[in-house]
Give the backbone structure.
Amino acid sequence: MNYPYYGNFKMYIHGLIEQKHSLGYPYNTSARILRMFDEYCMKHFPKGHTLNRDIAMGWASLKDNEHPNGLLRRITPVRQLAKYMNSIGIEAYVIPPKEPKKQIRYVPHIFTGRELSAFFQAIDSCQPSPFSPGRHLVIPVLLRLLYCCGIRSSEARLLHTTDLDLEAGTVFIRESKGHKDRILYLSDDVLHLCKVYGKRIRPYYPDRIAFFPNQQGSFYNKSMIGCWFHLYWDNLSDAKKCKGNPARVHDFRHTFSVNLLNKWVKEGKDINAYLPYLSMYLGHANQADTDYYLHLVPEFFPIFRDKSRKMSENLLPEVDYE
């Protein structure tokens, strides 16, 4: 989406966005944040033509009820803007990398086998909707794909029909986080699920582009999958018994990863050798993001807890969240 910019830094914002686009980055979320920064500058510094410390650090202050991770997401594009301006000879204050002081890792909910069984049984009861033909077919398959393949919800909802090769049993993930394409192999049961779904959805949308079409035959918006998840999960008795952070749809991905690591441990596999493959499979740009799961496994699985005590510090590095 193209956002309008009207403030004194609009020329540089446009330049930064064009630079990111030329490198293949969608930069949509950052462009939206820069629109908010543009409005902030017009309101509080209408005569400010230099991106100085007052402007930058005013933006970098934590808002009421704002999570530190939200602040980090707000700061990053403005820091990039200042670096871009400096690179073209325009003086600008770069928010220090230590701001905010610490990124807080969200501790995900790792679903138990019982919880997964109850959830998928619930979504299988999804009834046809007169307002969205085929939705009762989409919901059970899309949500299963999130757990069974460990892909992000955005990657699932933006799948094209041509991204799935049901003969070869592969799915092409395009423009994932980090802007790297990757190909995943589907297990036999997931492949069968997708084949049956394809035959059942075709009468509703014979010429669809989206593998999971909305009522217009296009792609669902990013909030819809979370809404479906909570529609079914929040009504389960298991959901009311959960401790810790509330479950989210993204936790299917975390559960997939933790379960796979635990399976490898049970099979006696060399985790140190297998971890890079998991990192590539998940589409992580940084293996530290994958290493994080090693800290989750002992918390939820006693088998790994016993073995992890014997692993070297190189295998279990401390993750720097700053």
User: Anything to note?
Assistant: The first strand starts at residue 164 and ends at 165. DSSP finds 14 helices and three strands in the chain. Residues 250-308 form one domain. The two ends are 30 Å apart (CA to CA).
